[in-house]
Amino acid sequence: MIVVYGTVCLDRLRQVERLPEKGGYAEILAETDLLGGEAANTAVALAQWGAGPVLASNPIGRGPWAELIVGKLGMAGIDTTLVPWSESETPTCDIYVTPDGERTMFGRGFAAMDDRADPTLFPPVEGSWFTADPNHGRAARSAVVRAQAAGMRAYLLDFLRADDPIGPGDTWQSSTDWIGVRGNTQKNVLWLQEFVASRGCFAVLSDGPNGFVAGGPMRPVRHYPPFPCPSMIDSTGAGDMFRAGMLFGLDQGFSLPDSLRFASAAGCLKCRHLGGTSQVPTKAEIEAHIAANPSVSRAYE
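Given the sequence above, the corresponding structure tokens read:
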């Protein structure tokens, strides 16, 4: 079982030719409302691949946006029992996507999550996987501690505070959007080496089109090249797709190199479409993409 605890929201994606300068103007070329949030993006991918995730989220409000969220989760085959309705506003993320696939985000309703989210919502099952993002604040950290105490295997996304509950046996992931130096592999390797030495966990620091660095106590930190992206439409949710790929591989008993391959290929194929949940790459597509790029694949051994 894989428990995905964390953020579910409405993503309002807007495609623009460019981001305006301060005080300037940019035309919105197209817009669409989609299911979003780190937990939703990860859970939808896992459900697509047949992993049967348990999703436990923040309250999603009421009204049309909450109905859209529940409807999209249902269409993905995800049980919404642990996705609570409430009288609070539906968390929303306004995402502006430029032609290079980069996204700029503005959120609403996220700051209040640590007071509204329930860290005891999910069922702790010893030996199962538990993954979380830190957007629920204190509640998220309490949920992690609860899962670890129950003997669950923790996979933590973007937990960046020095006092975050990350330790030996855990898996950690973040990106150079939040920490590290984009495009500077040497500095990112050094940073992650220090992080792994202090935490004792296996860690991944992604760097978009530059690939990622990863390592742990039993696997030296090094750079892994990216799988080529067939078309860069939108990078929203690429890190969540990578996380889903890692969790899927590890849960299925893949080797660590095979899990990293699956995760990396899944993350790049996600970028072919808008949003984090609109069109999840299938297992067959991911496996075919790995097979079509043998030189990249060999670099993961």
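The CA atoms of residues 190 and 221 lie 8 Å apart. Try to locate this feature in the token string yourself.
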